[in-house]
Amino acid sequence: MRKKIVAGNWKCNTTLAEGIALAKQVSNLVAEKGAKDVVVVLGTPFTHLASVATAVDLSRVSVSAQNCAAEAKGAFTGEVSVSMIQSTGATYVILGHSERREYYHETSETLNKKVALTLAQGLTPIYCCGEALAIREAGTENAFVKKQLEETVFNLSAEDFGKIVIAYEPIWAIGTGRTASSQQAQDMLSFIRQLIAKKYNQNIAAECSILYGGSCSPANAQELFSQPDIDGGLIGGASLKADDFLAIINAY
Ligand code: 13P
């Protein structure tokens, strides 16, 4: 079902104690002052998942991993499986973030396995896509994002596709303070929704939550979220400050 979602991606930040404190602060603020119809998600490091899931009110705040193993279990030293993630109380997994694609060479083939395992375990993938600056400057961002989707989540059945969340994050806007304009974000999210309608059907497209990510802040969230195809945000830096994160949640 199409929902408004504001998801924090803490990336590789916070010690366990800092993470628990931040999660408690967010949970309390959301309980006191948070918009009731917004799904709030905290994407924490693996090491924090279980503690954060215990620290927050899970009826108001959901917990997400930022990655998962591409295999269900076995001899894969250092990997964290989807069932391990699920056992912590987390219900979302961020997949295909551009930082993982770039620094850890995550391919469409690997992502397909991760998406399938996440769905099989009943967790919700937040599937990230988005182009680099050179692609935007060449004007080929639509073709690039289309290919990312075609190589991965467009392989899903209609039923499974209906369970995922998409996050469009232009790489040039991540951590740069250079956010996409609300029009640029709206144009891409509308394009993605049209692709979904063509691949599946209008109903699935209308029901899919599509988020924008990239230098989203209390200053620009309202303008971004007022666009018809933007169903929320995937928030990096601003999710590390509870007050800023709450302001973004309440930007609707
Ligand atoms: P920033 O909000 O720090 O630009 O990060 C966006 C992001 O990558 C969220 O996944």
SSE run? EHEHEHEHHEHHHEHHEHEH
Could you tell me the strand content as a percent range?
15-25%
- Amount of helix: 40-55%
Specify the CATH architecture: Alpha-Beta Barrel
Q: What is the tally of helical segments?
A: 12
Our count of domains comes out at 1
| Radius of gyration, taken over Cα atoms and rounded to an integer in Å | 17 Å
Number of strands: 8
What does it look like?
With 252 residues, this protein is of the alpha/beta class. It has one domain (4-249): Aldolase class I (TIM Barrel, Alpha-Beta Barrel). It has helices at 16-33, 49-55, 82-87, 98-103, 108-120, 133-138, 141-151, 158-161, 182-199, 202-207, 221-225, 242-249; strands at residues 4-9, 38-43, 61-65, 92-95, 124-129, 165-168, 210-213, 232-235. The protein has an eight-stranded parallel beta barrel, surrounded by six helices. It is globular and about 45 Å long. The protein starts with a strand and ends with a helix. Bound molecules: 1,3-dihydroxyacetonephosphate. 1,3-dihydroxyacetonephosphate binds next to strand 8.
